[in-house]
Description:
Elements: H1 17-35, E1 46-50, E2 53-59, E3 75-77, H2 96-105, E4 111-115, H3 118-125, H4 135-138, E5 144-147, H5 158-166, E6 171-174, E7 178-183, H6 186-209, H7 218-226, H8 248-259
Parallel strand pairs: 5-6
Antiparallel strand pairs: 1-2, 1-4, 2-3, 4-7, 6-7
Helix pairs in contact: 2-5, 3-6
Amino acid sequence: xxxxxxxxxxxxxxxxxxxxxxxxxxxxxxxxxxxxxxxxxxxxxxxxxxxxxxxxxxxxxxxxxxxxxxxxxxxxxxxxxxxxxxxxxxxxxxxxxxxxxxxxxxxxxxxxxxxxxxxxxxxxxxxxxxxxxxxxxxxxxxxxxxxxxxxxxxxxxxxxxxxxxxxxxxxxxxxxxxxxxxxxxxxxxxxxxxxxxxxxxxxxxxxxxxxxxxxxxxxxxxxxxxxxxxxxxxxxxxxxxxxxxxxxxxxxxxxxxxxxxxxxx
Length: 265
């Protein structure tokens, strides 16, 4: 559990209710990433657009573990990674290259999660990419983009290639690197990454078994993807919308509040 002693210092600032809400949700996402073991020490990032300042983004203070992140410790930056608030913290500017590319190209990308999980790196190395072997994988059928490795994301020119490769898709595998999801909300982005991670773990396990695998039909895969992470009307659901990316988030916040509510600080 994070204590007051080891939390990042708070940056004094005046903010809107919308920004405050975005900060709480993003800090929660960092804590959940730590809870589920998606972290890479202090590396990788989760970013969120400031709702009432669309050219400004929130990012973690560089040098802190994900389970130390609080709402007030998040750093507000512009598209070039320059701080636009009075935060005492630094950011990993090179790490923001990937995130700034997606936020700039995709106005719908309110939250971008980039990870280096074991399963994500393994699938990113596979020529076949993500296969529609499991129901979790079929959620993303036809919705996964790929970007070839260019080494450490230090070259600002790579932003254009990242954006072009992602296009209008919500998920991208960075070859020989890791994974990325772009969600319309923090909750949606988290849910996509959770389901993607489970799909990749299942794929690695299935391929490692050495057994002959069954592949679902294209029709089945398309039908599942059509009903996933969408705002479109889905008649089969009682509320008319898919619960994926919507209904899990309040429950996850309740779980965090039971474990350690300091992410809200």
